[in-house]
Amino acid sequence: MRHLMSPLDFSVDELEKLFDLANDIEKNREKYSHACNGKKLATCFYEPSTRTRLSFESAMLSLGGSVLGFSDANSSSAAKGESVSDTIRMISCYADICAMRHPKEGAPMVASTHSRIPVINAGDGGHQHPTQTLTDLLTIRSLKGRLNNFTIGLCGDLKFGRTVHSLINALSRYDNITFIFVSPEELRIPEYITDNLKEQNIPYKEVISLEEVMPELDLLYMTRVQRERFFNEEDYVRLKDFYILNKEKMSLAKPDMLVLHPLPRVNEISVEVDDDERAVYFKQVQYGVYVRMALILTLLEIDVNSL
Amino acid sequence: MLNVGKIHEGFVLDHIKAGKSLSLYHHLQLDKKDCTVAMIMNAKSEKMGKKDILKVECDIEEMDMDVLAVIDHNITVNVIKDGEIVAKKELTLPKEIKNIYKCKNPRCISSIEQELPHIFVLDEKKEVYRCKYCEEKTRQEL
User: Out of A110, A236, B78, B115, which residue is the most buried by the measure of CB atoms under 10 Å away?
Assistant: First the structure.
């Protein structure tokens, strides 16, 4: 039995298989619509995350399975002080697979060690959010046809942005990737990440101005500056509007550059960009469902060849 | 100079950083064993200036020596039989250690989960230990 805790749990070859399956699902929705008949997904969300939870639920329902679960800690027995390891033992009796979101880092891993069913980390504090990274990779691979030979700009909160850190780790496994980190001084990419890149001889540069690097980019990954990461309101207010992607900046970009964003967006991408065909963040949401469908099938070891 | 006699059967930990032997004594749980222990602190050392030495009359196989390497892998371990050194044990950093460090990350599940062992995994590239759950590296000194 396998779990998914980090995007690096899957080898590059395993990811290829997963993405091939996701692309097949995209083309043949009907073929997979009963693949999980009789199977149940438990969504154990100890903190609210409507988007991720709905994506998991939509994925399982699209496979013909059913869902049960809770969407914040107050409506679960965690409010009564139950441990994660006790909860997962109970959930193992109710469901066939579990997606867990928890504010504490490592909680899904603790769950996986006591679980009789596969556990998917659906986000654990500022630590990992592997299905977001799988979504990002599938989006890039599906729309660009490859996961190598890119210059990718990552823009916004690079200090606290968990999705950014995960994506860098995941893309570092592919050939000929150049990273360009675009952030204000206060939200620079942590040194341990640039140290890792140096060790692997992966080229990167850090810049403050987005305009200056726009023409070089094949991909632009925008992120939100999150209020909850700041200790004081002043810093948040000062930095939140630092980068706003608008039509003018988009005019500097290559005609086939793609803009990704893990969403939710606040104001860092102007709505006028939404109509630009290079803006693929809503397509990304759809790929999120496909990759979660592929992941559920893979972890449940459903024989897709017999469908 | 203070003289402490030879031990007959057991082991001698030499080249312990001065002042660390008491902490070693506790981490090796020697306080729970019924054996003779001599702790020499601040002994003169050519190599280190000052050092601590621990002499323990107890079978080395009964000891969990993992903790030694974690505290200081420069410690020399001499195994004694019939009053003579019969072997020197190499200390290597264990891949995983349990309940030696405590994860100090307040966002880590180990801060709230009942009776969860504090497990740290060796990051071999960096020679640091990281919490198995949150991957935060430890900055604690033992």
Answer: A110
The yes-or-no answer on residue A102 being catalytic is: no
Specify whether B69 is located in the same domain as B110: no
Full residue range of the structural domain in which residue A231 is found: 131-276
Chain B interface residues (partner A, CB cutoff 8 A): 105, 107-114, 116, 125, 131-136
Contacts of B111 in chain A (CB under 8 A): 104
Tell me which residue in A110, A127, A199 faces B113 most closely, judged by beta carbons: A110
- CB hemisphere CA count around A70 (13 angstroms): 15
Of A105-109, A216-220, A252-256, B58-62, which range is least confident? B58-62
What part of A 93-122 touches B (C-beta under 8 Å)? 102-107, 109-110
Residue of chain B minimizing CA distance to A195: B126
- Residue A196 placed within a domain: yes
- Is the domain of B48 the same as that of B72? yes
| Chain A interface disruption, residue of B96, B102, B109, most A CBs within 10 A | B109
- Assess if residue A12 is contained within a domain: yes
Contact A85 B116 (CB under 8 A): yes
Tokens of A119: 């556990």
pLDDT band at B16 (very low <50, low <70, confident <90, very high): very high
Q: What is this model's ipTM?
A: 0.85
Q: Same domain, yes or no, for B34 and B81?
A: yes
Same domain? For A80 and A116 the reply is: yes
For residues A204 and A178, the answer to whether their CB atoms sit within 8 Å is yes
Query: A114-160, pLDDT tens digit by residue?
Result: 999 999 999 998 899 999 999 999 999 999 999 999 999 999 989 88
Sign of the CA dihedral running B103, B107, B109, B113 = positive
State the residue range of the domain holding B114: 96-131
Q: Is A129 a catalytic residue?
A: yes
- Which of A92-125 are b and which e, b meaning 16 or more Cβ less than 10 Å from the residue's Cβ? beebbbbbbbbebbbbbbbbbeebebbbbbbbbb
Residue B40 belongs to some domain of the structure: yes
pLDDT (tens digit, 9 = 90+) per residue, A18-74?
Answer: 999 999 999 999 999 999 999 999 999 999 888 999 999 999 999 999 999 999 877
Number of structural domains (chain B) is 2
For residues B120 and B73, state if they share a domain: no
Task: Please check whether residue A44 touches B, CB under 8 A.
Answer: no
- Tell me how far apart the alpha carbons of residues A173 and A168 are, in angstroms, rounded to a whole number: 9
Kindly list the residues from chain B whose CB atom is less than 8 angstroms away from the CB atom of residue A105.
Answer: 105, 107-109, 133-136
Same domain? For B71 and B100 the reply is: no
Q: Please state whether A215 falls in left (phi above 0), alpha (psi between -120 and 50) or beta.
A: alpha
Inside any domain, residue B136: no
Q: How far is B128 from chain A (nearest CA, A)?
A: 13
**Secondary structure of residue A253 in the 3-state scheme:** coil
